[in-house]
Amino acid sequence: MKFPPGILDEIRARLPVSEVVGKRVRLAKAGREWKGLSPFNAERSPSFFVNDQKGFFHDFSSGKHGDIFAFVMETEGVAFPEAVEKLAGLAGVTLPKASREAEEQERKARSLHEVMALAAAFFESQLESKAGLKARAYCEGRGLGGEIRKRFGLGYAAPDKHALRDHLAGKGVAVEAMIETGLLVHGDDVPVPFDRFRDRLMFPICDVRGRVIAFGGRALAADVPAKYLNSPETTLFHKGAVLYNHHNARKPAHDKGTVIAVEGYVDVIAMAMAGFPHAVAPLGTALTPEQLTLLWRMADEPILCFDGDKAGRRAAFRAIDVALPLLEPGKSVRFALLPEGQDPDDLARSGGGQAIARVLDGASPMVEILWTREVEAGPLDTPERKAMLEKRLRALLAGIRDEDLRKHYRAEMEARLRQLSPRSGGYGQQSGPQQGGYGQGGRGQGFAAGRGGARGRDPRRQGGFSGEPVRASESLSRSALFSKTPTVSPREALILAALVAHPDLLASQAEALLELDLAHPDTNRLRQALVDLDADRAAGGADVSRETLELRGIGPLLARVEAAVRPGDRWCLDSGADPVEVRESLRQATTLHHKARTLHKELGMAEMAFAQDESEASLAWIRDLRLQLSAIDGMEAEIERGGRDDDLTSRP
């Protein structure tokens, strides 16, 4: 819920910081301020200060700082809206009522929550009934006894295609509500809607308030295409913005000062059984920025715990790219990799909670995993390969938005790079900021140089910028952030149109497709149609095909998207094209898309930051982002030139 700034200001005006803090901390007057012992760290000498005139608290022992809302969030482990509501009541401020439209949406959401609660209760009863015998046997085999099943609300969806539908209908629930919550599979080619989840062990997914908003289902039959099936995106459920077990983990995470993110539902439950109730999990996808933000609300340094296999290592490396641009002083992540071939459930069975604790205690900081990933990317036995490592690190660290943190990361990487060539005192000792060497003259000419960020220099005099005001770049102006009528991105069009032409690839790409940040309404609609079709197919519905899309009224939209594909990429739309080549083109397009969308968003923030504060850091940030976007445009042009062929039939 959004609150008008005037309301927040009124609450601040009515509640001195010392009054709010004084309910938890014994304060003593110290000149114009108040002081006391830190509520965040055990200490003997006061290092916690409150200034009512400036309206903030500052804790020197932990570095925490903020206003009354931040204090309540930090000390009580609540989200911002809850902090506002609590302090409004304390201040005697009446929060404005929502608009009629917002009230209607809230009423509708409450109704849908009731539907999900009824579905969860039905699944739970089925698990404990005669029909759930096979599912209970599976649970017992995984060590999930009756108490833990009840604690996590586990259930069972019977094989019958209409069991849940008929049960909810008997409770007066409309079919439309079942469809809107994702409980039924429907469509123009589905004459009678049927249950999405069948013969699956069910895991209810809850919001932070503990209300069921979705389900995850684990197939019990070995021949089912999708081992795990999640609810589709709905009014209540946005997969990338939810953490499994968030509602249960929030208080223990606040009490313990940390939170652990594992990979799956059963991993979370295994961690809880082993004595780690502050464990959560993403929902079958790579960690998203929204989920990382949720983790940081629970702890300053969440531990990302990954399985001890190649997939777990890849997941850890992907998490670096998500976290790096979002890091702030005091906000980071640590990485705990389990022993080879083990997940939390395996480790808990073999070594108990102590074995898990040892792994968590040995968690590595972000900088260590970043260095490991880049060094392991290839051999470093020639100056050229070392220079490439330096270049990659420079580009990665440029994504850290906080100037001080970026400086410390650069210093750390400079030191590590110098150790690669101890006899020469470093490598790449070229003169001039554009080469950015290390060793002699490396300080000030390493990562900081060539970016217009060296202290005492005006980057506008280094050829990067003129003295004119910064305007949105041409590429940013074309993006959905600035355009009122955006055009379909050729890259987005290629990804979606290729999956329509090659539906066999969709099953393996569905999760990645959901993670794409798409800018245009048409590509978003087509993406949702494809994901829904794939889910329907996995649940026994119609196959994914152009004909099915046209039956569902998606034909005109598909034609518009296909028309946006570049001529050099149109060979991918040929159903007879080599699927290996198509898969590689999709991989390239997806990688470039993720990178470009991230850079466009950062460029928008950088340009807005410069408009507010014309600092050297802002200029350096803009310059670096523009260079990276130019590199992507050049790379994409090379790919297109390599793929363009007037005679499409000559392509394999």
TrEMBL record:
GO molecular function: DNA binding; DNA-directed RNA polymerase activity; zinc ion binding
Ranges where the Toprim domain occurs: 257-339
Pfam families xrefs: DnaB_bind, DNAG_N, Toprim_4, Zn_ribbon_DnaG
Biased composition (Polar residues): 474-483
Swiss-Prot/TrEMBL cofactor(s): Zn(2+)
GO cellular component, as recorded: cytoplasm; DNA-directed RNA polymerase complex; primosome complex
Superkingdom of this protein's organism: Bacteria
Keyword Transferase found: yes
Sequence segments annotated as region (Disordered): 418-483
PANTHER family in alphabetical order: DNA PRIMASE
Function: RNA polymerase that catalyzes the synthesis of short RNA molecules used as primers for DNA polymerase during DNA replication.
Protein name listed in UniProt: DNA primase
Source species of the chain: Alsobacter sp. KACC 23698
Gene from which the chain derives: dnaG
